[in-house]
């Protein structure tokens, strides 16, 4: 009697190599570049600060959100507000810059409409739109 030969055929090996190649290309293409990740993180921090400023303005008076080239700060009467151990100003990630602007909120959380653009040295940018109602997106 003949013994059955154990192992993989050439077709099976090639199929597995092709599948691994397709999965790796898909995975690495979704990762994005580091500069886009930094810009997106800065955008998220900025939107969070805008919502925080709006909510705080409805409970307190004289609330401003100040965006500089490298940071964002929420102030009350000109003094940065401290939230737990980390307070404002919040510095953007390395290589991310923003267009400077200041928003002053009223007791209803309204402010003047405006746009803020964040960009990186790699040419990646993101825009944040602030509506007159205080809504940011």
TrEMBL record:
Gene3D superfamilies, sorted: Glycoprotein, Type 4 Pilin (3.30.700.10)
Membrane spanning stretches: 7-28
Name assigned to this protein: Prepilin-type N-terminal cleavage/methylation domain-containing protein
Keyword Protein biosynthesis: no
Keywords assigned by UniProt, alphabetized: Membrane, Transmembrane, Transmembrane helix
């Amino acid at each position: 009697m003949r013994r059955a030969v154990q192992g993989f055929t050439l077709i099976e090996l090639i199929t597995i190599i092709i599948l691994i190649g397709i999965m790796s290309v898909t995975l690495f293409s979704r990762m994005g570049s580091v500069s886009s990740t930094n810009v997106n993180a800065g955008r998220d921090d900025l939107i969070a600060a805008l919502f925080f400023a709006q909510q705080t303005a409805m409970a307190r008076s004289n609330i401003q959100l100040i965006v500089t080239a490298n940071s964002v700060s929420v102030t009350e009467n000109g003094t940065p507000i401290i939230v737990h151990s980390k307070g404002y100003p919040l510095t953007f990630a390395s290589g991310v810059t923003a267009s400077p602007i200041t928003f002053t909120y009223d007791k209803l959380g309204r402010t003047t409409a405006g746009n803020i653009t964040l960009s990186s040295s790699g040419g990646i940018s993101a825009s944040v739109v602030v509506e007159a109602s205080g809504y940011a997106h």
